[in-house]
Design brief:
Elements lengths: L2 H10 L11 H15 L6 E3 L7 H7 L2 E4 L2 H10 L6 E3 L6 H10 L3 E4 L2 H14 L3 E8 L8 H8 L8 E9 L12
Parallel strand pairs: 1-2, 2-3, 3-4, 4-5, 5-6
């Protein structure tokens, strides 16, 4: 809804409760400010889980959109977001989830377990396609792999012709409100 449509709804009382009105110009200004702060050496990624309804606007403003489930991937597909703008993360990926993401051409898929890695490898080998991956490393929470598991895979990286390791995604957990808990 643009500003003109909002003003019209406000005048005739068509907005219902609850209603959320976002100023996309302010959002764009904030994103551009973040781009200035991080500089050209880093890109911005929008994790869509909180507000999937602003994905089309965010797709124009950021480098990547992070999706964590098949439902979020289908939302991006419905909006016409190209796979090349998507990072597919999330735990408990099934074979069907991996196939849906890779067949759509997602830019990056996270590896959050040995099982995920095997599913990605199997799909890539079977379809002769490459996958760019990030290994999600955890500091002991239930989400991600420990460093030893990642190291074990990386020592055999020559066996995986279709896998391109792009980096590490370090996950320290959620709901941490004190700085010492982030370490």
């Amino acid at each position: 809804m643009n500003n003109t449509q909002i003003r019209k709804c406000l005048k005739i009382g068509e907005l219902t409760t609850p209603s959320y009105i976002l100023d996309m110009d302010v959002l764009a200004a904030h994103v551009n400010e973040m781009k200035t702060i991080v500089g050209d050496g880093a890109g911005l990624c929008y994790a869509m889980k909180a507000n999937p309804f602003i994905v089309p606007a965010m797709a124009e403003l950021v480098d990547k959109i992070e999706v964590c489930s098949p439902g979020e991937l289908s939302i991006c597909q419905a909006y016409g977001i190209p796979g090349s703008k998507i990072i597919f993360s999330g735990v408990n990926k099934t074979r069907q989830d991996v196939e849906a993401a890779l067949s759509y051409g997602v830019a990056i898929i996270t590896v959050e377990s040995n099982k995920h890695f095997q599913l990605i490898c199997e799909y890539c080998k079977e379809h002769h396609v490459a996958a760019d991956v990030l290994f999600r490393v955890t500091n002991g929470s239930q989400f991600g792999m420990d460093a030893e598991a990642v190291e074990s895979i990386l020592t055999k990286k020559d066996k995986y012709d279709f896998i391109h390791v792009k980096g590490i995604h370090y996950f320290s957990g959620t709901q941490k409100k004190k700085f010492d808990k982030l370490q």
